[in-house]
Amino acid sequence: MKYQIAILAENKPGVLTHVSGLISRRAFNIETINAGYTEENDVTRINIVVNAYNETELNKVIHQMAKLIDVIKIVNISELPSINRELIMVKVKADTPAVRADIVNIANIFRAHIVDVGHENVVLELTGEQEKLAALIDMLNCYDILEIARTGPIALSRGTTPIKNM
Amino acid sequence: MHINGARAVIESLKNEGVELIFGYPGGAVLTLYDEIYKTKFPHILTRHEQGAVHAADGYARATGKVGVCVATSGPGATNLITGIATANIDSIPLVCITGQVATPFIGKDSFQEADVCGITSPITKHNYLVRYAEDLPRVLKEAFFIAGTGRPGPVVIDIAKDAFAAEFDYEYPDSVNLRGYSGINIGDEKTIDSVVTALQKAKKPVIFTGGGVISSDTHKFLRKFASSMHIPVTSTLMGLGCADPDSDGYLGMAGMHGSYASNIAIMECDLLIGIGVRFDDRVTGIVNQFAPNAAIIHFDIDHAEINKNIKTELSVIGDLQWSLPLFLEKTAPYVSSIKSNCKEWYEYTIKMQKENPFTYKEDKTHILAQEAISKISDMSGPDTVAVTDVGQHQMWTAQFFKIYGPRNFITSGGLGTMGYGLPAAMGAKLGMPQKKVLLFSGDGSIMMNCQEMATLADYAIDIKIIVIHNSVLGMVTQWQRMFYGKRYSHSLFKSKADIVKIAQAMGIKGYRIEKKEDLKTGLEKIFSEHGPVLIDIVVPEVQDVLPMVPGGKRLDEMVLEGDI
Predict the structure, then answer these.
(1) Do A63 and B146 touch (CB under 8 A)?
(2) Same-domain pairing of B155 and B193
(3) Which domains does chain A have, with CATH numbers?
(4) Residues B391-424: pLDDT tens digits?
(5) Is residue B183 part of a domain?
(6) HSE (CB half, 13 Å, CA atoms) of B204?
(7) I need a labelling partner for A122 at 20 to 30 A (CA). Which of A93, A94, A155, B151 fits?
């Protein structure tokens, strides 16, 4: 099972290493990991998707992470009503007007943005849930995908309570 | 106070009430050592950084204070690793100060550079890299707070050489400000109520006590709990000393080399109350058959320990200083009913223990390790601290040396670090000079940090070293005998090294006892001597530590005698 974990941590060097090291030491697989600043400038939010055998095993690693001194709060977002988004950029070969038109069409259908265009290629940007991103990639697979970069999902719980107050 | 970073470290140590540190100088900590020199700060110079960290660990275990050690960058710091891991797995509070190369040299593969924070992350409670002197007071304050509160553990402070030299206005903070760590562990009172209810229903309860009782200094509550309600007590290796070994319901150590009564009681009980334990694989036997008939209750400070190895029915998460007194208070009205409920079981376990004590077959001609340890136990007062290395002698000491109080048994339980004993005994004696400190070691273990005999000599640290000399790696040969067809691969010492002469060459007294008839008189003579002494007791090669629960077996499948 995949679980989305959100961690609020002190914005200090080495925090990400501590967290990711602990997960891999307990033999869990990190699917994606990303981190960024939050509404408080000395707090980092680390968003992780881990693959765990079940929730009991997941809770073991959550308790271990909660023990890290720099970790302020850790929440399993998967068990909450939440909004989940990921950003992807795809570079596709588009060296003929026909292919370029096709890709623009696909982009419009998915409400993706064309963020770069050249004589040889097009870069699409799309934000959404993972199924939507997968569907876009599936469509673009009919063409020549040159490169993909994606952020990994981030999530926010619904309602007014931020996870730091949970 | 306008001082440099090195002096700030010393002042912070003073502010934390540190009385003694252990260490070894080197390039990156020269400025710090200069301040140690100028301030005459009490410092023990060991012969190896590993000696320094184990000594700080032994000091911490014996006193309950935070142990402090110092090492230089690169190899100095990496020599601490085994000691840090040893302290971490046994939850021992340490602050390890390492020098780091100067800031402009960090990350350039400079001379004696190692990524100490990277290396120590998995084996510390927390660590710091300090680049600016201004950060030192806060970091030291936090480090001592983190090491000594909650579930204790080692903290590493890696300080860049230029941070030691930089001057700034020093002020030591009064408190720490850590959003992710409070150090306070008060749990939910309701969890205790449910334990009280469970205990009232129990007919066959067992208390299973561990190192957490010692580190939280709650053995008095535990002893009262057991004696007032007549509940039998069994202990992990790390918990030895929590219970009074002469008390009626004390069944001895449990686990792989535990007592018959302890292991059977665990298998037959209907309620197992684990207090400050982590259900290590050496104590549970096959994990899904541990206490199969029991509801398991777990008291622990660390949430992450609950359901980690053993699934529990009830848990009381919080400091034992909070939970145990409250638990006693809440059980007080039911003491007599609990006592009468469990009467039959209590008497049964006592009988089982009386009929099946730890035992060995005496040898007519040779001194046996078990015999020597028993004799030494009889000769030692209740205030004696027994320190061990790792191997057969460690288990025999746990079985045959009576430990009367907490912090009187010092051993590397979780990591099983050979070479731990000598420096740890040294630290224990320096922390507790009024107590007699004995080290039980083997001819394998003693050689792993034998250089520290020189430290003993230099500072005249009065410990008695008992080397159980069987000329083999005892525990390794035992397993090879039992599970590897007696193929003694690299476990037999055909050594020409003379341990007595090594002791003498290092500047301490050394004696050998070979004959059975000399054992008692020899020991008496040696124990009456003042100052560090090594006694080499020659014992037979082939002796097994029994009982033994073979790996992957249930606790009641233990082998009591003969071959497995």
Answers:
(1) no
(2) no
(3) 2-79 (3.30.70.260), 83-154 (3.30.70.1150)
(4) 999 999 999 999 999 999 999 999 999 999 999 9
(5) no
(6) 17
(7) A155
Mean pLDDT confidence for A84-100:
96
- Residue B188: Cβ within 10 Å count: 12
Domain count, chain B: 3
Could you confirm whether B475 is annotated as catalytic? yes
pTM metric for this prediction? 0.96
- Claim to verify: residue B268 and residue B405 sit in the same structural domain: no
Residues of B in contact with A64 (CB under 8 A): 304
Using the predicted structure, report yes or no on whether residue B386 has a pLDDT greater than 80. yes
**What is the DSSP code string of B75-113?**
HHHHTTHHHHHHHHHTT--EEEEEEE--GGGTTTT-TT-
Owning domain of residue B396: 369-545
* Phi, psi values for residue B515, rounded to 5°: -95, 140
Interval B46-57: pLDDT, tens: 999 999 999 999
Task: Name the minimum distance, in Å, from the CA of B120 to any CA of chain A.
Answer: 10
Cβ(B473)–Cβ(B444) under 8 Å? yes
User: What's the whole-number mean pLDDT along residues B501-524?
Assistant: 96
Domain-located, residue B331? yes
Q: Kindly report the CATH number assigned to the domain that includes residue B490.
A: 3.40.50.970
Distance of CA B112 to the CA centre of its chain: 31
In this prediction the ipTM stands at: 0.89
Can you give the pLDDT at residue B336? 96
Q: Are residues B258 and B336 in the same domain?
A: yes
Which residue in the list B475, B506, B548, B558 is annotated as catalytic?
Answer: B475
Angle at A13 between CA A8 and CA A17, to 5 degrees: 75
Contacts of B37 (CB under 8 A, 6+ apart): none
